[in-house]
Specification:
The chain has 260 residues and is an alpha+beta fold. It has three domains: 72 residues, Beta Barrel (OB fold (Dihydrolipoamide Acetyltransferase, E2P)), CATH 2.40.50; 84 residues, Translation initiation factor 2, subunit 1, domain 2 (DNA polymerase, domain 1, Orthogonal Bundle), CATH 1.10.150; 84 residues, EIF_2_alpha (Alpha-Beta Plaits, 2-Layer Sandwich), CATH 3.30.70.1130. 47% of the residues lie in helices and 26% in strands. The protein has nine helices and nine strands. The strands form two sheets. A five-stranded mixed β-barrel has the order 1-2-3-5-4. Strands 7-8-6-9 form a four-stranded antiparallel β-sheet, covered by helices on one side. Strand 1 and strand 2 form a beta hairpin. The longest helix is centred in the middle third of the chain and has 28 residues.
Length: 260
Amino acid sequence: MYTKKNLPEKDEMVICTIRDANPSSVFAILDEYEKVEGMIHVSEIARKQVRAMKVYLKPGTKLVCKVMSMDLQKRYAELSLRRVGEGQRRTKLQQWGNEKIANDILEVFAKQVGLASKAAYEKVGNKIIEAYGALYPGFIEISQKGVSVLNKIEVESKLAEQLATLIQKRITPPKAEIEGYFLLQSSAANGVEVIKSAVAKAQELAENAKADLEIKYISAPKYKFKLESTNKKALDETLKSIQAELTKHMTANSGTFLTQ
């Protein structure tokens, strides 16, 4: 897995592996950075962990720590364990796990195209990291938009095609969603059919835009909707087109349409 050549910043959350521990301090390697180590003083360790250091803080254990200060010359960080909230810890571990997934994909790609790992990073990986700050966010963008993302950062055409294909096979882009309520009512004699056809039109528009639309009846005239898509920008545009079409349809059939 790649390591960052720069240094962590104050207050940054970092992944650490414990190298050694004594009753007053824990010494760790910062996994994401090249040749950076750190120390957690006992005052920056939660009480329950201090009481059971042999269980919680043994060599080889991975931790999420907060950078309190950084000695730039020595490449040495003062770290805190107790100042990391549970939500921050989960988020950082998720990011770390995602980067490992991306790194594994890049390793598979390197083997497919006959490159050494270092060369794969030089030709592709480092360009993605420079553009997105990390591999995984770039891979998510590629999974959504395809090879055009790699073309923009000037990855060699043949390599770009192969990597984009692999990423789209391995990574399912996360779905964005919009939830709310449709208010549909009509005074026409066939009002029920008018509303049914409005719902069908909305679902057809969503399908054409490659989005998922779920509509549930709550109570007249209220319907709950959930619109999902892997493309957030396209999702907003899809909702706008649904709103425009349903407004037009309901107005033409002695009805009204509103979104809440």
